[in-house]
Amino acid sequence: MLWYFKTLGKGKVIEFILLAIFLLFFFGPLLNLLLLAFSGEWQYPDILPKSWSLEWWSFVLADESIVRSMWLSFLIASIVTLISLIICIPAAYAFARISFPLRRFFLFSFLLTNAFPKMGLYVAIAVLFYQYNLMNTFIGIILIHLINTLMLMTWIPSAAFENVHRSQEESARDAGASPLKVFWYITLPMAKPGIIVASVFTFLSSLDEAQGTLLVGIPDYKTMPVIMYSIIADYPSTAGAVFSVILTLPTIILLFAARKFVGADSFANGMRLK
């Protein structure tokens, strides 16, 4: 290995060291989490666990309240993604294709829900929810999750629709296709990668949402991130690590499944205000 570094210049060696530090900083906590989840006995200053165990996996998967929280999280994330698609795709298409006054301002305004401290925003919303009896209700949780996903589900598909050339739509119209057929057979398939990227991020954002659910859904609705707070506080760190791995698995699976569409370009185009 040393011979390889000797062939490199000092600049390349420094770049390699910086890259190695970044990778260690990025993947180190994930690796530590994975080791902790399967450790039986692991104490400082040991680098690796002395023994391996599945004890806390059995505990987590045998607890009915935890399993119920998993199903609830996936149910909420699926419903939020579906509703976001129904609401935001027409809006994204309108932002991409229709010129109207203050268009850029309205598009930028979707960022405002992410510009304030989340808990402060949730407390203000909770006051309204109390008035309309939405606290501790399934509908209230769905609404809280939707607030977080509007930006992703509008910006990214809007950029995807912008990238569809109008000439292709006009050609289909010249051939006699109705506006609905042009949208369904031309525009929507070409914008599909951006919509899939937005759907994946929306699902994952809803799956990881904790603060709003904790404020609005307690005591009857406890999702995985909410349950995690009590597990971390009441049980050894190994139990928290097991639950974190379970919470992370859907993210990894979805990103691998959507790796064809999830890329820096897709996300960057969605974050670009045109």
Account of the protein in words:
Helices cover 76% and strands 2% of the residues. It contains 13 helices and 2 strands. It has a two-stranded antiparallel sheet with strand order 1-2. The mean pLDDT is 82.
Relevant terms:
274 residues, mainly alpha, two-stranded antiparallel sheet, 13 helices, 2% strand, globular
Please render the helix and strand layout as text.
Elements (H helix, E strand, L loop, with lengths): L1 H6 L2 H28 L1 E3 L9 E2 L2 H8 L1 H34 L5 H7 L8 H14 L6 H25 L3 H9 L4 H30 L2 H7 L6 H11 L2 H21 L6 H7 L4
Antiparallel strand pairs: 1-2
Helix pairs in contact: 2-12, 3-12, 4-7, 4-9, 6-10, 7-9, 7-10, 7-13, 8-9, 9-12, 11-12
In order across it, which strands form the biggest sheet? 1-2
Give me the strand/helix succession. HHEEHHHHHHHHHHH
Which stretches are poorly predicted, pLDDT < 50 over at least 5 residues?
none
N- to C-terminal distance? 48 Å
Mean pLDDT comes to: 82
Give the beta-strand count: 2
Question: How much is the radius of gyration in Å?
Answer: 23 Å
Percent range for β-strand residues:
under 5%
Shape descriptor: globular
